[in-house]
Amino acid sequence: MTRFKITLEYDGSHFIGWQRQSNGVSVQEVLEDAAACLNNKAPVLVYGAGRTDTGVHATGQVAHLDLNRAITGDRLRAALNALVRPHPVSVLDCQAVPEEFHARFSAISRRYLFRILDRVAPPALDYNRVWWVSHPLDLDAMNAATEVLLGHHDFTSFRATHCQAKSPLRTLDHFKFRRVGAEIHSDIEARSFLHNQVRIMIGSLRFVGEGKWTKDDLYKALKAKDRCAAGPTARPEGLYLAHIGYPPLYDSLQTL
Amino acid sequence: MTRFKITLEYDGSHFIGWQRQSNGVSVQEVLEDAAACLNNKAPVLVYGAGRTDTGVHATGQVAHLDLNRAITGDRLRAALNALVRPHPVSVLDCQAVPEEFHARFSAISRRYLFRILDRVAPPALDYNRVWWVSHPLDLDAMNAATEVLLGHHDFTSFRATHCQAKSPLRTLDHFKFRRVGAEIHSDIEARSFLHNQVRIMIGSLRFVGEGKWTKDDLYKALKAKDRCAAGPTARPEGLYLAHIGYPPLYDSLQTL
After folding, report:
1. B130-148: buried (b, 16+ CB within 10 Å) or exposed (e) per residue?
2. The CATH number of the domain where A13 resides is what?
3. Angle B15-A13-A149 from CA coordinates, rounded to 5°
4. Do A173 and A64 belong together in one domain?
5. Pairing of strands A47-48, A57-67
6. With an 8 Å Cβ cutoff, is B88 touching chain A?
7. Chain B interface, best mutation among A84, A90, A113, A134, by max B CB count within 10 A
8. What torsion, rounded to 10 degrees, do the Cα atoms B29, B35, B37, B42 define?
9. ipTM of predicted complex
């Protein structure tokens, strides 16, 4: 048995999300079905580092799987890319790893990208790739307000009401907005996130960018520890799971 | 009668091209049908600055049209964006212009963007937005070779055999490749281009990037004045009509 770490890109608009579900096609199902063809037809379980929701994309999702045959990482990548067609999933990298590697539990950081298109004209090219806000947002005000959320906090106000995590405490390590052409991109990093945390934070920061909320309003929303105190959940199509960090032992294996 | 200059973004993968055709949906047809609804049902002709081929995108196509009613540019933009749905066309800007303005004949420069994804894994997110080449290209060699094509030349080798232009002489003002993440982007500018000129130049430069051709091979291809001497035509999905330049008189009207 060999364990493989795979790095993935996918178009979330074609999937019900990462996790296998009975009511739609998931990224996990597509990968597990492809991997089974390379495992003498025996079922394969594919474990993802993060469970992306319906419509959420990935440019750097990581998963692991075990195969009962010998194969090089490069050949496995090529075989999986052939077998997942025509689903919009691409295996960017594939490495044999020690058996104790676990895509989810070995991860020490997760980074997301959020893309906002803030212009009056709707997107024609990126219609399910960005969150369209039909008026310009105040980037400086948004960046100043992110300070409120950085660090270790109780993020109860910024988690989905059905979130399963035991603790609402999380440490937000990085949260910055930058202008990229007609878009605003945000890089958000933490060891882990609560369910919908990124999208609720973005939905709240949009209020700041529109001048509806001050930095202090955002602080009050955080302190309220109440989902109703924060802004609405941002649309999933602007969200990309961009990078999963692992301890140097595993990271040195990455070639990308 | 008022003449309007409109700036457009569209997803070329959903259209047979810019020009109205009997065998598929064109951008021109979608816009003309929408504009007729705003012209007391009288037909409207929409003239584009460049006739993009099937699959070619635009982020800055310009067109003009005449309406028999009074309407502000902002209202026309909003009305057209509502009427073109669900086709992936977006009117970015709309300005009333002097009657002598002509989107095609007043243009003094045209700029294209070409996106190449040069990595082993196929694109999952940008599968009809980039030209996928499954191995890394030598950016420096490609940039050095573009020198051969810059300036005033007979571009017979780099025009489609069915190209209708009277003269094969064109002046290439700018041609540069740059690395953008996992992609190579190229900016190409001239007053005007021959049919398929950009895509044949890119298809030839790919040979240079792969080490199959030297800069001198590219020079010989140009001098041969024979389509068969140049490389293959690059795929349309990597090509974007990015900007149309007009004399300062008209450009000062632009707000974008």
Report:
1. bbbbeeebeeebbbebbeb
2. 3.30.70.580
3. 125
4. no
5. antiparallel
6. yes
7. A90
8. -90
9. 0.90
Active site annotation includes B11: no
What's the pLDDT band for A248 if we cut at 50, 70, 90?
Answer: confident
Domain that holds residue A75: 2-106
Q: Which residues of A are catalytic?
A: 53
Q: Residue B4's beta-bridge partner residues?
A: B65, B96
Which of B11, B89, B121 is facing A90, going by the closest CB pair?
B121
Residue B252 pLDDT exceeds 70: no
The pLDDT of residue A252:
59
Identify whether B249 is part of a domain: no
Domains in chain B, number: 2
Separation between Cα atoms, residue B51 and residue B117, nearest integer Å = 25
Whether residues B132 and B61 fall in one domain: no
Q: Using CA of residue A64, residue A69, residue A75, residue A78, what is the dihedral sign? A: negative
B9 contact residues in A (CB cutoff 8 A)? 121, 123-125
Is there a domain that residue A248 lies in? Answer: no
Residues B71 and B114 in one domain: no
CB-based contact, A168 to chain B, within 8 Å: no
pLDDT tens for each residue of A22-39: 999 999 999 999 999 999
Which chain B residues have a beta carbon less than 8 Å from that of A90?
121-124
User: Is residue B147 assigned to a domain?
Assistant: yes
